[in-house]
Amino acid sequence: MLDKNIDLNGKRVLVTGAAGFIGSNLCKELLKEFKNIHIYGIDNMNDYYDPKIKNDRLKEVEALADSSESGEFDFVRGSIADRDLIDNLFSDFKPEVVVNLAAQAGVRYSIENPDAYIEANLIGFYNILEACRHSYDAVKSDANSDYKGVEHLVYASSSSVYGSNKKIPYSVEDKVDNPVSLYAATKKSNELLAHAYSKLYGIPSTGLRFFTVYGPAGRPDMAYFGFTNKLVNGDKIKIFNYGNCKRDFTYVDDIVKGVVNVMQVAPAENENGVKYKVYNIGNNDPVNLLDFVDILQQELISAGVLPQDYDFEAHKELVPMQPGDVEVTYADVTALQEDFGFKPATPLRDGLRAFAKWYKEVYC
Question: Which of 48, 155, 170, 183 is catalytic?
Answer without folding.
Answer: 183
